[in-house]
Each structure stands twice: as C-alpha cells, then as structure tokens.
Amino acid sequence: MCSVRAFPAITEDEFSAACKALERRSADHLSDTDWLGVRWTGEELLIRQRRKISLCSGDNGVAGDQRKDAIETEAEKEVIEDMIEDEVEDASIKDTRASRCSEDDCLIVEFSIILSPTYCVPALWFSCQSVPHRQPITLDRIYEQLVPQPSSASLRSVGVLGGISMAHHPVSDLPSFFLHPCNTQDALSVLKPDKTLAPEDYLILWLGLIGSAVGLHIPSKLLSA
C-alpha cells in the first residue's frame, strides 16, 4: 500500500486514492448514521449528511447531538495523535450516530472535499438547506447550527472575515461556504504520527481535524468496517 510521501502535503494521486478508499469503506455501512451518501467523482469527494437542529428557544440553534459533538471536540484533541492506530477504540468519542429527526428540524448538508492546488491539502466546501422548505442557510446560521460552540469564537476570529467564507465552488461554480485551508498544513504538522500514513489514514486524520470544526465526524461504523 502506498503512503503519503510529503506529509502534511498530499499529492493529487494520493488524494484520489484516499477518496476512493473512503468511498469503498462507506459502501453498505451508512445505515443508522447521519451520513446519507459518499461519492468520489474524480474531482471531489461528496459527503451528504443529515444534521439534526434544535428549534427550541434558548438553544441558539444547536441540537442535543450537536452540543455533544461540541463537547467531544476537546476530547478529540487529546486523542488525535493516536487516532489512526486506535481509531476503533476512539470511535465512541467521535461517533455522531444517526440523527433521527423529523422533516421540521433537519439540515441537509452537502460537503465537498477537493484538493487545494495552492496549499496541497484537502479543502472542505459545503452548502446546506433547511428541510422541508429547502431554504439556503445564512453564515450566521452556519455558526449557530453547524459549528460546535467551543470552536465558534476561534473560527470567527480567523483573519479579517473569519474561518468560514463563501465563494463559487471550484468544480460546480455554485455559491458555497468553505473553510480556509491556508493553515491546514501547520495544524496537521502538530499531529504528525510516528509512522507513515496511507492516503486513507491521512484523509481520516484530516477529517478529524478539519471536519470536526463544522461537526463532520466519521461514523464509528465506517472506522470498524
């Protein structure tokens, strides 16, 4: 099996291999999870997620499951160095579980992972709509309903405009939100494991670091598949 040769950077071939591997791993293992689909198109890895939100007053739009994910973010930081070899044991920390929600309190989030040619790391793009009205979501609601509370302040303070911005997606050309990838290599360098990483392990590590900023966690069923 090939390994990532220039960690924390990843090449186009390594990125493609990682996305194909995660797509294969996801086949027939998404039931009872909040992931609705995983598909590699040859340019981007598409992950469709059903996200439960809270419509109760005083919750700031963050669901019970979402608050749990926010609390778990700190635990993830403590175990991230071991997440490749101990991923199954740590799965209970990061398990998002299935979001069994009615059509009145859900968001459908369309994640797109592409390779940034400038920074040579994956970049996370996403868009979402409320169900059943299919209305687009504002940036303020993104921070309220997708970003775990402990991460919100630090993510908003990145640069001048914050860590989440909107632009035209490089593949679809549709307006989408994205997480700035400029500091990803530095963040991954801190988590560099002692052993070499297979491309899929690199992608899992990256998702644990970057995906968790907007509540995108790999379901434990996939880690044990």
TrEMBL record:
The keyword Transport applies. One of its GO terms (biological process) is protein modification by small protein conjugation. InterPro entries: Atg3/Atg10 (IPR007135). Transmembrane segments: none annotated. One of its GO terms (cellular component) is cytosol. Keywords: Autophagy, Protein transport, Transferase, Transport, Ubl conjugation pathway. It comes from the Eukaryota. GO terms for molecular function: Atg12 conjugating enzyme activity. It holds the Pfam family Autophagy_act_C. Belongs to the ATG10 family. This is Ubiquitin-like-conjugating enzyme ATG10.
